Amino acid sequence: MSEINIKRRYLVFGSAVIGAGGLLMSSIPFVESLNPSAKALSGGGPVQIDISKIQSGQQITVAWRQKPVWILRRSAEMLKVLDSTGLKQKLRDPKSEVKTQQPDYIPAEYRSIKDEFFIAVGLCTHLGCIPTFRADIAPDDLGESWQGGYYCPCHGSKYDFAGRVFKGVPAPTNLLVPPYRYLSDSTLEIGVSPLKKILNGSDSGLG
Fold first, then answer.
1. Would you give the DSSP letter of residue 68?
2. The listed CATH number (2.102.10.10, 3.40.720.10, 2.160.10.10, 3.10.129.10) that belongs to domain 42-190
């Protein structure tokens, strides 16, 4: 074999190796593009929470669809406050007549499936700030008439222990109650309605 042919074969082989390497490197972004993005992974599937350890009067916060969701275990004293006629007279929508703020299966007054547990998206309905949980009675900054609930520090909106908005504040509606259901006495699932059914092996999409 002549020296020219030998050099030609090495040149072709080297080009093939470089080309294969380039193909491999260029395929990596393509393979990566097949994996679900962080945005897709955080798209908002149902969230299950163990509520058995929440104490009476205690509230916890969980994330659902990148939003804070409150789970409040209301005490007997909190429920008594909600029954107060004096409180209801101060509320803009005491009977939860704005239907977009809670699923149809949620009772209007306590705004919860079970009286003891209140679940709501923790965003003020004014401009989306996060209200603070204020269970203290008649604090100096909220006045003697304050019986507990939620206070938004951004613009002063107030809500009771059922997320019902007070009159005379910037927030236009009650706090949003998300779809949820109980899987057991100790497990709550947020993002799924109790009316959800399985049709032909797939979710019906209710809730």
1. E
2. 2.102.10.10
